[in-house]
Known about the structure:
- By secondary structure, the protein is of the alpha+beta class.
- It folds into two domains: about 1-30; about 40-129, no CATH class.
- Helix content is about 45%, strand content about 20%.
- The protein has helices at about 5-25, 40-50, 105-110, 115-129; strands at about 60-65, 70-75, 80-90, 90-100.
Amino acid sequence: MMTPFDKLxxxxxxxxxxxxxxxALALPQVTAAKVLPMEDAMGVIDVVHAHLPNxxxxxxxxxxxxxxxxxxxxxxxxxxxxSALEKKVGKNWTLVKMISGTFADASSLEALGVxxxxxxxxxxxxxxx
Length: 129
C-alpha cells in the first residue's frame, strides 16, 4: 500500500518526466556535422585548389559529414565565391559538384547522392557559419 509520501514522489516523478518529454518535443532537432580529421580537411582543401586556378591564397572553410564534405570560400583575391561538395572514395577526396554561391538546402545535396541525414547535418553546420 502506498503512503501519501509515496504518492507524492510518484506524482513528482511523473510531472518531471512529462515536462522533460514535452521539452524534448518542443525543441528543434539540432544536427551537426562532424569535425574532419586534419588529414581529411587538407585533402578537401587540396581538391578545391586543384580545381580553381591560382587559388593557393584562397581562404577555404569546410564542414564534414564523412564521407561527404562541403568546402566554401568568399569572393576575394580575384576569385568568385563558391562551394564544393566532395566525397571521400577510398583514401582520396573527389569533387562531386562545384557551384558559385552556396548549397541552399539539404534537398540540393540529396539530389547529388548525399543521404538525407548527412545532407541535413551538413546544411545545419553550414548555416552556423
